[in-house]
């Protein structure tokens, strides 16, 4: 089996685990993420607008917005890194690619912390995303400019024993789940 097929199978399993966790989730899933981000008040942060069965970072993002810049990803095109547009709670939004909302008016900036959505993760800081490479290209670009903290945010059930990774896959610095915080 080639790497593309192996990754597709790993994504399918990750999506199944994520959906099961999402279906049984309760309020307060983001408590540990709020705890982590409280130590970085005022540092520019980018989160994401949750789609489908992704765990929601919106409450911690709103907390961060009271202290500094918060953004959400805006896809620029296939094969390109993401840009991050400033977001505030209750700001006007428009439909973006893949069903994620983006700010009505783009106001781009470079975050120093990225809250990264994912399909699966491992305890070595590996991350399996949707397969477009957007976050890998983005983290590579941002890390070439300055230290950038990548925090994977997921349900604990999304953990995999091992992931089919490539040299271009950017590692996470931390994974935060509803169950705890893991630093790599």
UniProtKB/TrEMBL annotation:
Matching Pfam families, A to Z? Answer: 5-FTHF_cyc-lig
Which GO MF term does the entry hold, naming one? Answer: metal ion binding
Give me the reactions it catalyses: (6S)-5-formyl-5,6,7,8-tetrahydrofolate + ATP = (6R)-5,10-methenyltetrahydrofolate + ADP + phosphate
What EC designation does it have? 6.3.3.2
- InterPro entries xrefs: FTHF_cligase (IPR002698), FTHF_cligase-like_sf (IPR024185), NagB/RpiA_transferase-like (IPR037171)
Chain positions recorded as ATP binding sites = 7-11, 127-135
Which cofactors does the annotated protein need, by name? Mg(2+)
Using the record, list the residue span of the signal peptide; answer none if the entry has no such feature: none
In its UniProt record, which GO terms are filed under biological process? Answer: folic acid-containing compound biosynthetic process; tetrahydrofolate interconversion
- Where substrate is bound, by residue? 49, 54
- UniProt keyword list: ATP-binding, Ligase, Magnesium, Metal-binding, Nucleotide-binding
As for family, the record states: Belongs to the 5-formyltetrahydrofolate cyclo-ligase family.
The entry's protein name is 5-formyltetrahydrofolate cyclo-ligase
Which organism encodes this protein? Shimia litoralis
């Amino acid at each position: 089996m080639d790497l593309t097929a192996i990754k597709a199978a790993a994504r399918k399993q990750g999506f199944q685990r994520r959906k099961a966790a999402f279906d049984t989730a309760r309020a307060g899933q983001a408590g540990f993420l709020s705890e982590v981000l409280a130590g970085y008040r005022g540092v520019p942060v980018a989160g994401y607008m949750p789609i489908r069965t992704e765990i929601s970072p919106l409450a911690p993002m709103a907390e961060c917005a009271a202290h500094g810049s918060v953004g959400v990803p805006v896809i620029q095109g296939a094969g390109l890194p993401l840009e991050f547009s400033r977001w505030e709670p209750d700001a006007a939004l428009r439909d973006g690619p893949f069903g994620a909302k983006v700010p009505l008016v783009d106001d781009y900036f470079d975050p120093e912390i990225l809250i990264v959505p994912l399909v699966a993760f491992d305890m070595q800081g590996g991350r399996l995303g949707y397969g477009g490479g957007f976050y890998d290209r983005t983290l590579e670009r941002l890390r070439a400019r300055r230290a950038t903290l990548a925090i994977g945010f997921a349900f604990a059930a999304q953990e995999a024993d091992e992931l089919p990774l490539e040299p271009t896959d950017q590692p996470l610095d931390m994974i935060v789940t509803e169950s705890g915080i893991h630093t790599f």
